Amino acid sequence: MESSNVICIPNGENNIIDHREDNNKSFKISVPSIISCLGEKKIHSVTSYFSDNKMKNELQTKQIIHSIKVGISLVLVSLLYLVDPLYEQVGENAMWAIMTVVVIFEFSAGATLGKGLNRGMGTILGGGLGCIAAVLAQNLGVVGNKVIIGASVFMFGMIGTYFRMVPRIKKRYDYGVMLFILTYNLVVVSGVRADQKVWDIACERFLTILMGFIICICVSLLFFPLWASDELHQSTVTRFQELANTIQGCLEEYINIAIKEETKSSVSFGVCKSMLNSKSKDELLANYAKWEPWHGKFGFYYPWEKYLKIGEALREMAAIVLALGGSIQTSRSPKEFTSVNQTVQLKLCEAIGSDIVWTLRELGDSMKQMRKCEADTHISEKLKAARTELSLVISMSNISVLENIDALAIASFIFLLKEVVDKVEELTKEVDQVGDIAGFRSY
Question: What Gene Ontology cellular-component terms does the record carry (predicted)?
Fold first, then answer.
């Protein structure tokens, strides 16, 4: 009798199926326990709907608060023009204070503080060097004056531009270096004319810029502060939960297909797709978070670099989950799906998938509450056992007999599930390191 070519994926000798004997027997699958939880999918969908609306409302509220804060800052800095005693002190240089508010006031307190400090450092350094070069040039006569100023402008412009291209400097101090070049040129060129009091010009501009900076910082930090660190922390925690829900949906759909339920795919991979494009935003938020002062749960030298590593691991897992969903979609309507699936250990996949989902939610909850995982040892044991079982399944699979795309899709599902387990283990180590460095509390 001719035997059918299927994937042979046994889990122990007792589970080996003799197809020559069972070809004419009806195949019965006991419904896994995960099917009994299909109602939870609706709950997750409703929860996700309200969660999305809540996030949109919070974002709109933050945008309104930011707009009000900018308006307040502009009103305060405009007093330099509107109040006569203040105008008599600063004169037309008040425009530099207004420009400072418009330029450096950012959405988060960390971004505003970082940009303001960069502007201050660039102004002080550029103005100081510009004054020295201008004073020296004014004592060298007309020709020497122009030669020294031209040479210094070229030299500092070249050096400053080169430093702007160095990755570490560009990442945190690009704006400060740009302001250094701008301020140096404005001050030193003012020294071309001997009748200009370069030092007075530099001091007046620095004082007005300082006024604008102080107004921005006070309003940003004291009036409903918006923290980049809070946003980065919350977005990282949310991704753990979203990935867990997506993986659970994939497993439920896989089981539905195995028992030949005619259901449309309800798994949304939009979260995974958006997660793949989150790298630049994470790096920006981490950079801003490093400038922020001690507030709430986050102190100085908080390990934001570790958050970037966690984000990278989550993006890699999102890519694997997308591939996992693709392997399921490939075999949604196979002609011989049931015969192929007879040798696939559904309960094993269910158990491993449940462990993955539980671990992701536990890690997300650990970071959210800033505590160490109570079941850290249990997590490691579960992941180690899952990897061993999947390795056994893969090693005993007869891939050479694959002749249809349905069997290949199921084999891909098993391989990708193993990759997910490996990535979850990597995330567990990263979260544990964050807890050690940040001093997460224990139970």
Answer: membrane
What is the percent of the chain where pLDDT is above 70? 68
HEC letters along the chain: CCCCCCCCCCCCHHHCCCHHHHCCCCCCCCCCHHHHHCHHHHHHHHHHHHHHHHHHHHHHHHHHHHHHHHHHHHHHHHHHHHCHHHHHHHHHHHHHHHHHHHHHCCCCHHHHHHHHHHHHHHHHHHHHHHHHHHHHHHCCHHHHHHHHHHHHHHHHHHHHHHHHCCHHHHHHHHHHHHHHHHHHHHHHHHCCCCCCCHHHHHHHHHHHHHHHHHHHHHHHHHCCCCCHHHHHHHHHHHHHHHHHHHHHHHHHHHHHHHCCCCCCCCCCCHHHHHHCCCHHHHHHHHHHHHHCCCECCECCCCCHHHHHHHHHHHHHHHHHHHHHHHHHHHCCCCCCHHHHHCCCCHHHHHHHHHHHHHHHHHHHHHHHHCECCCCHHHHHHHHHHHHHHHHHHHHCCCHHHCCCHHHHHHHHHHHHHHHHHHHHHHHHHHHHHHHHHHCCECC
Average pLDDT rounded to a whole number, residues 24-30: 36
> What's at 22, amino acid-wise?
D
Instruction: Look over the chain and give the mean of its residue pLDDT values, rounded to a whole number.
Output: 75
Please name which of 343, 327, 236 lies closest in space to residue 285, comparing C-alpha atoms: 236
Q: Is 394 exposed, middle or buried (0-12, 13-18, 19+ CB in 10 A)?
A: middle
Range of weakest confidence among 79-93, 213-227, 356-370? 79-93
Question: pLDDT at position 351, please?
Answer: 75
- Report the alpha-carbon distance of residue 350 to residue 35 in Å, rounded: 10
- What is the pLDDT, as a whole number, of residue 370? 86
- Please choose, from the candidates 271, 255, 383, 269, the residue with its C-alpha nearest in 3D space to the C-alpha of residue 325: 269
Tell me the pLDDT tens digit for each residue of 119-138.
888 888 988 888 888 778 77
**pTM (predicted TM-score):** 0.74
Amino acid 152: pLDDT = 86
Spatial separation of the C-alpha atoms in residues 274 and 288, rounded to whole Å: 22
